[in-house]
């Protein structure tokens, strides 16, 4: 269909093709920008002049507080760096703080005849090694889980965004749990490579009295005894323990927090105070930690067994311990330890995110993509 010249011109702003009216249609950009600055400048306040007009009185610019939202751009390099640092604090500090519990658990797994219960385990360690002995192996614990936490949290945030972008908004919202599972599993594969050498030395130091005082002398002894590759002898059982644990940790946490804000908390998340949101993070993390402990406990027993017995295999562990013992030995203590640990990790991680100006994790389901509307010609 042919259009007349006048009709085509009527669809185009006149100042584009009419030179005679250009001076009348051009916008005074200086005037527009000055008005925009007055409206958007939060450091200026209006005052009434003597002739009834409104003037703007300039004040000093206020630097945003560290916890002011928007300080770090979401999904920017700075965002992933902040999540990585938050992972160092959340995992390194919490695992180190429960070293006594971890020490008793490992010894119950290796020598159940001697360390029969939690209380007797603590009593034996105190009697034989004193208070100081309860924190044996804290250095490899701190360094190992700090490295693991950095990779786990930083790469989880990266892979969650990466897989969501691949799926697209509609499928990312529909299959969000699969996104959480895939993102956390991918992150944990990398995180365990960083953790494994420290975990191997930690277990040997904690379960073999006299082997070494800590990481500084334990690492050379371990390498001399097992070789450098021996540090990664437990990588497959470690993946078997940590990947299901982390998948449960992230997917259940995200789901629990979302359900809490949806059904149990009458106020939308964005209207809740930051301390309240951090409380929700801890509660959701604790419940998620209980599930994590149950799912990953058999592999945890395998890791302790393999790192304590030279040349042992998974088959040896199953044959000696049996399936029931493999799934239950030391489980009550691990539920208490991992529940508290996971709750504290999410609390610390989200507290750090709030401190640097980021929102807490979870609680808002991804919005599906709006349906495409086809224009009719």
UniProtKB/TrEMBL annotation:
Instruction: Provide one Gene Ontology biological process annotation.
Output: response to osmotic stress
The GO terms this record gives for MF are: mRNA binding
Q: Where do the Solcar repeats lie?
A: 78-162, 175-259
Q: Which UniProt keywords apply?
A: Membrane, Mitochondrion, Mitochondrion inner membrane, Repeat, Transit peptide, Transmembrane, Transmembrane helix, Transport
Cited PROSITE patterns: SOLCAR
Cross-referenced Pfam families: Mito_carr (PF00153)
- Reply yes or no: does the keyword Transport apply: yes
Q: What does this protein do?
A: Transport of phosphate groups from the cytosol to the mitochondrial matrix. Mediates salt stress tolerance through an ATP-dependent pathway and via modulation of the gibberellin metabolism.
Name of the protein described by the UniProt record:
Uncharacterized protein
Query: What is the native source organism of this protein?
Result: Ilex paraguariensis (yerba mate)
């Amino acid at each position: 269909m042919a259009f007349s010249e006048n009709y085509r011109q009527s669809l185009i702003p006149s100042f584009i093709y009419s030179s005679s009216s250009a001076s009348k249609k051009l916008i005074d950009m200086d005037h527009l920008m000055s008005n925009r600055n007055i409206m958007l400048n939060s450091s200026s306040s209006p005052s009434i002049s003597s002739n009834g007009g409104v003037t703007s009185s300039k004040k000093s610019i206020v630097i945003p507080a560290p916890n002011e939202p928007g300080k770090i751009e979401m999904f920017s390099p700075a965002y992933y760096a902040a999540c990585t640092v938050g992972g160092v604090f959340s995992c390194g500090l919490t695992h180190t703080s429960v070293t006594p519990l971890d020490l008793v658990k490992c010894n119950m797994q290796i020598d159940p005849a001697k360390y029969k219960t939690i209380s007797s385990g603590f009593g034996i360690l105190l009697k034989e090694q004193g208070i100081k002995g309860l924190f044996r192996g804290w250095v490899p614990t701190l360094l190992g889980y700090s490295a693991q936490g950095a990779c786990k949290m930083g790469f989880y945030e990266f892979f969650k965004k990466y897989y969501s972008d691949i799926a697209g908004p509609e499928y990312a919202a529909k299959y969000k749990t699969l996104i959480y599972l895939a993102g956390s599993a991918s992150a944990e594969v990398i995180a365990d490579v960083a953790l494994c050498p420290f975990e191997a030395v930690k277990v040997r130091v904690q379960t073999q009295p006299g082997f070494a005082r800590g990481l500084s002398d334990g690492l050379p002894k371990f390498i001399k005894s097992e070789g450098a590759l021996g540090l990664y002898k437990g990588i497959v059982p470690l993946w078997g323990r940590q990947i299901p644990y982390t998948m449960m940790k992230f997917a259940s946490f995200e789901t629990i927090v979302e359900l809490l804000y949806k059904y149990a908390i009458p106020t939308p998340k964005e209207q809740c105070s930051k301390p309240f949101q951090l409380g929700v993070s801890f509660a959701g993390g604790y419940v998620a930690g209980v599930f994590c402990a149950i799912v990953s406990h058999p592999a945890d027993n395998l890791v302790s067994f393999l790192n304590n017995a030279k040349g042992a295999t998974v088959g040896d562990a199953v044959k000696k311990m049996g399936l029931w013992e493999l799934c239950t030995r030391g489980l009550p203590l691990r539920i208490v330890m991992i529940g508290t640990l996971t709750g504290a990790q999410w609390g610390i991680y989200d507290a750090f995110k709030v401190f640097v100006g980021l929102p807490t994790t979870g609680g808002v389901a991804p919005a599906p993509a709006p349906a495409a509307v086809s224009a009719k010609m």
